[in-house]
Amino acid sequence: MTRFPQHNQKRGFTLLEMTVAVGVLGVGLIMVAAFFPAALLEHQRTVDDARALNLSSKSVAMLHNRINPDLLYVDQFALASGFDSPWYAIPFVNMRVRPDNTITNNRREWDPANVDGVVGNCLDPDVTQVYYNLLNNIPIPTVNPCVQPNPVQLFGLDYLSDRVLPRTAARVQEDADRLVWYGFYRTLASGKRDFAAVICKPRKDRQYAVQDLSDTPEMNFGTPRVRIETPTVNRFFPVPWRVTVGRIAGTNVLANQNNATVPGGVNIDALAPRGSKIMLHGRARTFTGGGVLDFPLGRILTVVEASPPSPVDNRSRIRILEDISDIPEFDPSGDGFRFDIWVFPPAVNLRTTASGAPAVVPVFEDESPVLRWKVGL
Length: 377
Fold this sequence. Notes:
By secondary structure, the chain is of the alpha+beta class. It has helices spanning 15-65, 76-80, 124-135, 169-174, 268-271; strands spanning 88-89, 180-187, 193-200, 208-209, 234-235, 241-248, 253-256, 277-285, 291-292, 300-307, 317-320, 329-330, 338-343, 348-349, 363-364, 370-375.
């Protein structure tokens, strides 16, 4: 009798099993795909950090070799009292937002920070000098405001990560990888000069707001108004702001002034959103106007939380990562100890009116341009 070979009959997958398998595979692929944006973002941050480190080396060389210390303002009051001076910003010639802006000589088309009614017929670099000296609260001569300490000593490509200077406004705006650095200095009680640098990454197709320095601020004892200059004047590169804050008792929280009484006032949560790095300016004061010199200066603080104005006191707040318990507390009912910080606010988006014209107050975005601070160069 002929025997036929018996084949093992194996059971196949059912439609339900295939559907479940495909579903599990799809979930897995979605989870894997979710890692790619985070990985790309982390890679970009790593690249930016490496480039910021390289640019900080350039800033060290520029500050030590190109800046003439004899032209820098010296805080004689601090030195006479045996204290180090605050950190002062070194004038930086920015570039204004103008579609037809063409840079031809590294100087005049790098736009000065303008101050209405102050500069007269000063040349462009001198106008920037006046602006930064107002920002630094450095006395400006009344006879000839164009002749004063802290002249502009660096221009254009000196500050940029570029190897070739962008010579049109469009070229400035189209580069998403450009970095720029800014210099600061202080004079120690010994007479020695210290430098600091901050590395920033301008956002593509964005603008940065200028702080209002036009007149005496309300209840602020010689510090700049915490508001945007109006009519709005914006720049392609980040602009430093000096802001007065106080530490809330028993916390690592800083609050700025009540801006309800300041027309166009800007709150600290907008100027220093979460992730921002700020630097202690080094000069403090009380409500009675008395200056305090023995104050921790140059420390870099990291913002971990930013809160809008409280309904209790209408003060905006930022929470600091580092321990700042050694900074005296702000006591509104007492002498009111306050101090200044250096902040580089985020880029702004301009609100428009019904006619399409820019509104008075731009809207700050939520990403700080600061990548790295390097103090004590």
